[in-house]
Sequence to fold (458 residues):
Amino acid sequence: MDILQQEPIAALATAPGIGAIAVIRVSGQRAIEITNRLFRGKDLTKQDSHTVHFGTIRDYENTIIDEVLLTIFRSPASFTKEDVVEISCHGSEYVIRQILRLLLQEGVRMAQPGEFTQRAFLNGQFDLVQAEAVADLIAADSEATHRAALTQLRGGFSRQLKALRQQLIEFAALLELELDFGEEDVEFAQRDDLRKLVAAIQRTLRPLIDSFSVGNAIKNGVATVIAGKPNAGKSTLLNALLNEEKAIVSDIPGTTRDVIEDELFIDGIRFRLIDTAGIREATDAIEAIGVERTRQQLDKAAIIIYLFDVSDTTPAEIAEVEAELLQRNVPYLLVANKMDKLTSNELVHWQLQFGKELVPIQANTGRNLDEMTQRLTAFVKNRAVPGSTVVTNLRHYEHLMQTDAALLRVLDGLDAGTTQDWLAIDLRDALRHLGELTGEITTDDLLATIFSKFCIGK
Ligand code: GDP
Fold:
């Protein structure tokens, strides 16, 4: 495919600030010739794609700005599919500014946020779902978000949806043809085949739609509430969980990251502890179930940990708590704290009555905490099939829902024997949402919204 190269753009591709090295990316028409004018070293215009060259960047007085490594990518074998030069220079703000200034003087313009990715999209490097995955991948701050973004970047669900959409387009065309024949009673579009195709598309859509709750949890954190009476050990548990995290963080040399106290990463999954800040000072922050404020917090929970002092609670009380938890339809764990105060016989008794929803722990020593955290992550993982695509993006979710709704109307129409024109309307609706999802149908507004969320240089 011949790529129509646009005006050259440049931006810092690495994070701003001081670093050992920085990378400035130049893309577009004459990107290689322009960079070559500022470069002393080999003649870049004569070099192959995917080669790296050492030399200096100089200003108009021939003063050396920096020693650099230039990587050349020739169209279409680059990220944007245009000619691209990546300038690796030293990560000083002065050097970066000088190099960018020289590029601008040569007629290059500063890139808009997301413009490199937008060009890549427009040149067919990937579809919209994948382009958005690039943004997600850059923003990924946990193993789980990283995995979700990477799956989407590598094709994800859009390829499958595109193929199904193509088939649906053929049906829509046949239906329109029937419309052209007006009064005559012709049927080009086999209704049974259409029904089968719609069912096949729904089979693809439904798991994606269902995956959104997990996807959303992965991206934004799993809303977790630790509830329990005063003295149950909530703050002790929280400290134990957060200390584990701190230990992990301080193991990484040079990290100065502050531990965010109400966020926990367990096994690559982010758990967002809802309003647990108060636990530290006050015991009334999250009291027993039954307190109005606790109810409000429980309403926001995706997972509930009910913690109780097992030496000071009867099974009958917990049975009552469990009955209320069951009504909420949210996964919960009954965590029996202070297991050190029980005999093993008593423990077995509890476990027999409550089964696997009950986890005994000893918060003040961390005993059996692993078991508890494993149960927590299992709630999330069990709902996401390993290796499957997880929808994390609200825009995708909404189009998937709307496609599904339109397809349901098509099926209803088929059942009721509606006329072609109504069927055609619903089909077109489904096609439009599928098309907007994968970016086969785009508007400037949509593109502007999506790509403006990127940072400059991406
Ligand atoms: P909160 O009011 O729910 O936040 O409870 P705290 O975390 O303040 O704990 C109440 C008391 O129980 C403190 O004296 C803790 O040291 C103690 N405690 C917490 N966990 C355990 C445990 O596993 N075993 C024992 N024996 N004591 C515990």
Observations:
- Confidence is low (pLDDT under 50) at residues 246-261, 277-290.
- Residues 409 and 452 are 35 Å apart (CA to CA).
- Residues 228, 230-236, 279, 283, 337-338, 340-341, 362-364 surround guanosine-5'-diphosphate (CB under 6 Å).
- Residues 191-220 form the longest helix (30 residues).
